[in-house]
Automatic annotation (TrEMBL):
<dbReference type="InterPro" id="IPR003599">
    <property type="entry name" value="Ig_sub"/>
</dbReference>
<dbReference type="InterPro" id="IPR013783">
    <property type="entry name" value="Ig-like_fold"/>
</dbReference>
<feature type="domain" description="Ig-like">
    <location>
        <begin position="112"/>
        <end position="202"/>
    </location>
</feature>
<feature type="domain" description="Ig-like">
    <location>
        <begin position="208"/>
        <end position="315"/>
    </location>
</feature>
<dbReference type="InterPro" id="IPR007110">
    <property type="entry name" value="Ig-like_dom"/>
</dbReference>
<protein>
    <recommendedName>
        <fullName>Ig-like domain-containing protein</fullName>
    </recommendedName>
</protein>
<feature type="domain" description="Ig-like">
    <location>
        <begin position="326"/>
        <end position="431"/>
    </location>
</feature>
<dbReference type="InterPro" id="IPR036179">
    <property type="entry name" value="Ig-like_dom_sf"/>
</dbReference>
<dbReference type="InterPro" id="IPR013151">
    <property type="entry name" value="Immunoglobulin_dom"/>
</dbReference>
<dbReference type="InterPro" id="IPR003598">
    <property type="entry name" value="Ig_sub2"/>
</dbReference>
<feature type="domain" description="Ig-like">
    <location>
        <begin position="1"/>
        <end position="90"/>
    </location>
</feature>
<dbReference type="Pfam" id="PF00047">
    <property type="entry name" value="ig"/>
</dbReference>
């Protein structure tokens, strides 16, 4: 800026001209310089020279001269007058320290969200170049931009605010595969210079969907039976790269965490890439253990990638009602004839509830007036079968033909004893579920006379 005081000519009509020189070279308007027309204010003549782009090789040490010439409009009234002033510039060479580049990641995004990464470029004051050539790449020498490699990435045009330039990369949605290193590269063309910065992006796995299913799925849950709860976590594989792993915490109705070394309530954690955990009761109980109530399964999804954060925990619950064990039954049935020489099949059927944790001890024997004989000593064909559920057992004796010595009282006895410890595994507080039952079948052999 050049200011000339012409107050001494206030009463005289004069013409004032102003010119600019750099090292005695007259300057004109153009791409390198902008010369604003002088303005008269309060007897001060003010002109502005704008150097559109300082260059150290031209401007460092250069002398800029402002010359002002005053010429009277009426000759010979006063003499003309010329004056000038000069300033010498010191211009530092542009280097990396004059531009600051930072990548702003305000938080750890959750996979599935819309997320913006901002590259903020701060130039020196009065920086003339408009930094529109900003690239986002995954690698320093990346040949392709992020937006070219990732269909979910969008690059927003650079926004300038003074000497601050902002480039925004939008990930919609962000995925766990986006957890990686990002480069923001800025080309400063006027200096044929590229500056850059890089930063890692951490992405968090979203909370999984968690469900608990009982086995058996329906019907009453009896004490002294095995009972299984299966907890399954599900992740959205479109935004979560698999395989992933899961960690689980099971809590009982009192809110206590069930330890993995509990012998009666076995926690089976997820293994490998399986997202399934099980809680197995061996057995479930209504006694001192009081297993009835609401159980909670908590799942967290993890990744082996240091840039992928584990999910927030997800809880789900399931109420469990335990009923007392119904009595075991023992019943006899027969097919055929009691007559001598005919065929007769005698069956003893023992029924318990399904999934009873112990197998009943069953004894089948024959009582006569003089002896007691076990089934295996009767020297007659027999079979022992159990149905698919394990709750129905049949002892079958085949008498073919029926003989006089087959007469007698056939007895079937069954018993079982279930021992379940409480949560402290203290045998002195053990609870027992004991049952016994029996049945009798009397065979009187008849003889039919023709």
């Amino acid at each position: 800026m050049c200011i000339a005081d012409i107050s001494q000519y206030i009463d005289t009509s004069v013409s004032v001209t102003m010119s600019w020189r750099r090292n005695n070279t007259v300057l004109t308007n153009g791409s390198d310089f902008t010369i604003s027309p002088p303005v008269m204010t309060n007897n001060q003549y003010t002109g502005v020279l704008r150097i559109n782009s300082l260059r150290d090789e031209l401007d460092n040490g250069a002398s800029y001269n402002c010359s002002v010439s005053v010429t009277p409009n009426t000759p010979f009234i006063i003499a003309g007058n010329d004056n000038s002033s000069a300033v010498t510039l010191t211009v530092a060479r542009f280097d990396i320290n004059h531009v600051d580049i930072s990548i702003n990641i305000p938080s750890v995004p959750v996979s599935g969200d819309v997320f913006n990464l901002s590259c903020v470029i701060v130039g020196p004051p009065n920086f003339v170049e408009n930094l529109t050539s900003v690239r986002w790449t995954y690698y320093l020498q990346g040949s392709q931009d992020v937006a070219s490699e990732n269909n979910d990435a969008t690059l927003v045009p650079v926004v300038r605010n003074g000497n601050i330039f902002t480039s925004v990369l939008t990930l919609d949605p962000v995925k766990t595969t986006d957890a990686r290193q990002y480069y923001c590269q800025v080309a400063i063309s006027v200096f044929s210079y590229i500056d850059r910065n890089n930063r890692d992006l951490t992405v968090q796995i979203p909370p999984p969907s968690v469900s608990v299913f009982p086995n058996p799925p329906t019907g009453p849950i009896y004490e002294s039976t095995s009972y299984l709860l299966t907890c399954t976590a599900t992740v959205n594989t479109t935004i979560v790269d698999t395989p992933v792993t899961a960690s689980v915490v099971w809590s009982d109705p009192s809110g206590n965490v069930i330890p993995t070394n509990d012998t009666r309530r076995q926690v089976i954690p997820p293994t490998g890439s399986s997202l399934v955990s099980m809680l197995l009761f061996q057995p479930i109980d209504t006694g001192l253990n009081n297993d009835g109530g609401t159980y909670t399964c908590q799942m967290i999804i993890n990744s082996g990638n240091s840039l992928i954060a584990s999910s927030q925990p997800t809880n789900t619950t399931l109420p469990v009602t335990v009923e007392s064990l119904p009595p075991m039954t023992v019943d006899f049935s027969s097919v055929g004839s009691f007559e001598l020489g005919q065929s007769l099949t005698i069956t003893c059927t023992i029924k318990t509830v399904e999934r009873l944790v112990v197998t009943p001890l069953i004894t089948f024997f024959k009582i006569t007036k003089t002896d007691i004989e076990m089934l295996s000593n009767l020297n007659r064909p027999y079979s022992i079968t159990t149905d698919d559920t394990g709750s129905v057992t049949n002892y079958t004796l085949i008498l073919d033909p029926v003989r006089f010595e087959d007469a007698g009282m056939y007895t079937c006895m069954a018993e079982f004893n279930v021992t379940g410890f409480n949560n402290t595994n203290d045998p002195s507080t053990a609870t027992y579920d004991y049952q016994e039952a029996s049945g009798v079948f009397t065979l009187n052999v008849t003889c039919k006379l023709n």
